[in-house]
Amino acid sequence: MVPGLTLGEDKKQRCWWCGSTSEYVAYHDNEWGMPMLDDHRLFEKLCLEGFQSGLSWLTILRKREDFRKGFAGFDFRKVARFGPADVERLLADAGIVRHRGKIESTINNAARACELVDEFGSIASYVWKYEPKRRMPESILPTSPESIAMSKDLKKRGWSFVGPTTVYAFMQAMGLVNDHLEGCHARKLCESARRKVKPGA
């Protein structure tokens, strides 16, 4: 067994972090590291990574559909119009993480996302500027020079809950980097998909 990998019941090798939980395995196999260009999903992931702060991703993953219902499918133009009544509605929603600061941050970030689209044409065009050079990860790191740079720029633009660790987790999940370890069955699938991706296409 390659260090950092785990062997599933289906005899497939996977990154150690997905363990044996069915939700995590499905997320690891089908989503994590697959390149994403859809602006709603990119905005969603940035927001959910912010909500994850202090929690496990599995907690957020299990609540993701409720988050989508509460935040209008993460249509940032709609979320940007949320007001105080929506904040109170979301604080009363037991299906999500009821954290006022993170809820208000999501609404603020939605307005900032609109500004990003106005300037760059899409969120995808902006975030994919920070795609690093291809590399073979020997271990999964918490940050990178690119995530630090994106975090700094987003904060300058008024975003919140977008620290370097949060941004790097976003980059990993959305395929800006392929951090599936060598020997993980999903690595080649993600790399093949990444070669076909052209932001703005």
Provide keyphrases for this structure.
mainly alpha; 3% strand; 201 residues; Endonuclease III, domain 1
Layout of strands and helices, then pairs:
Elements: E1 5-7, E2 13-15, H1 22-30, H2 39-52, H3 57-70, H4 76-79, H5 84-91, H6 100-120, H7 123-127, H8 145-156, H9 164-173, H10 185-196
Antiparallel strand pairs: 1-2
Helix pairs in contact: 2-3, 2-6, 2-9, 8-9
Helical content, roughly? 40-55%
- Tell me the CATH topology: Endonuclease III, domain 1
Biggest sheet statistics: 2 strands, antiparallel
* CATH architectural arrangement: Orthogonal Bundle
User: Whole-Å distance between the termini?
Assistant: 39 Å
The total domain count is 1
Regarding quaternary structure, how should these chains be classified?
single chain
CATH class: Mainly Alpha
In percent, how much strand structure appears in the residues?
A: under 5%
What's this, in brief?
The chain is mostly helical and 201 residues long.
Question: What features would you describe in this structure?
Answer:
One of its GO terms (molecular function) is DNA-3-methyladenine glycosylase activity. Zn(2+) binds at residues 15, 28, 180, 184. This is DNA-3-methyladenine glycosylase I. Keywords: Metal-binding, Zinc. This protein is an all-alpha fold and 201 residues long. The protein has one domain (36-177): Hypothetical protein, domain 2 (Endonuclease III, domain 1, Orthogonal Bundle), CATH 1.10.340. The protein is built from ten helices and two strands, in the order ββαααααααααα. The chain has helices at residues 22-30, 39-52, 57-70, 76-79, 84-91, 100-120, 123-127, 145-156, 164-173, 185-196; strands at residues 5-7, 13-15. A two-stranded antiparallel sheet has the order 1-2. Helix 2 (39-52) runs antiparallel to helix 6 (100-120) and helix 2 (39-52) packs across helix 9. It starts with a strand and ends in a 5-residue tail after the last helix. The model has no long low-confidence stretch (mean pLDDT 92).
